[in-house]
Specification:
17 strands; Rossmann fold
Length: about 500
Amino acid sequence: MEEPGTRIVAVSNRLPIRLVHGPDGLEIKPGAGGLVTALAPVFRNRGGVWIGWSGGTDDEDLAGLMEPASREAGYRLYPVPLSADEVGDYYYGFSNEVIWPLFHDLQTRCNFKPRYWQQYLNVNRKFAEITTKHSNETDYIWVHDYHLMHMAQSLKELGTERNTGFFLHIPFPPVDIFMKLPWRAQILRALLEYELVGFQTMRDRKNFIQCLRHISSGIRISGRGSVVTVIVGDKRVRVGAFPISIDHDAFAGDAESKEVADMAWYLHEALPNRQVILGVDRLDYTKGIPERLEAFKNALSRFPELQEKITLVQVVVPSREEVPEYQMLRAELYRLVGEINGKFTRSGWVPIHYLYRSLNRYELLAYYRLAEIAIITPLKDGMNLVAKEYCACNLEENGVLILSEFAGAAAQLHRGSIMVNPYDVEGMSNAIHQAFHMDQAERHNRMHRLREVVRHRNIFWWVNNFLKAALAKDLRAFPAVEDYVFEIPLVSN
């Protein structure tokens, strides 16, 4: 560590926890999602800090819950209290009715309300205030995702001097789509207040630079490779591509456990004499689930030999269920599953097993172990860690990955996957047919190649690359201390 007190301070919309109302009152449970999956093993017991919204209301007393949650997590947790209006306009409004659809090339779903933008600025400032309170000048402030693009500028407006980096976990759109954003110039200028801006792929980085050039003719680029320097007047900002990953060894090790093996065998016994094709997605219109179901129906119609020999297990994790658009998607999925099962079901065989619920870690890994084929076909995705998790858990190296060319993971995994256009129903149908008939030698060669990529380009590789670009240091500068002692000044709400 370069000097006493140096820490990584992660700032994200949500803390890596969730609040649950149990029989004895408010309880804290571990969080979920790609960011938590990726960063939690890296942060544990390194003396770091994680700042974010708890998921509760600003009048809830969380002080007594944060200390045990911090001890359990292995790093300090500080909540940012948000009111119902702030959550409505900043989170559901600007973040998820403007940035989320726009950055996923679905601008017709955007709702450009001016009040959303004003609340976005207000909440970013609130995050900056909490970060100022719980960090010092030697800390590295690592801000995550589209909810907080304005936070570095907010820190500077508060007079807070910090070394800041930003990583965007979702795609960055091409210039013709980004320029539809009414606050396009403000967002780009705010991102240039970070010392380092990271994206998932080189395509995202290129889109960002093209957008900068579109609004300013004075942009210059220095350097080559995955990280370059953007020069705007006397401002110099490093911009790079850092594809996020998973803790490969942890997933592979847990997948090898007796608990997971037994569960996978139990699932296999319930689905005998057939290949299982697995889809795992959060409920969201960017994931391409209706298109995937249509492709599966098309495959059963065009290739009758698949009937009674293949089963699609589609897991959909509930998300944003109070949003009408997501309610409509949920209803559409139930309709499609019912239609397909009604048409093709035979005695002893149901084509689609549909699970609308969250899976615990061991259930998820058991399904990864069970499936001969994984089908991951988002219309657009920043990375998609499910693809990497499936590969890490495919211990026998006999699985086939069908992957959308519009997932960020495609940049790393295209050589071993069957690549598809998720808008091409017949193309995906053909991929299902190809995967079903693929011989064992080809399966092994493809999956071995995929697993080597995920093993070598793991989450620690990702963090090291980002920190080297940011600080010319890697994780060895933040050593894990298993008996780390917390002395937590609690945040009053």
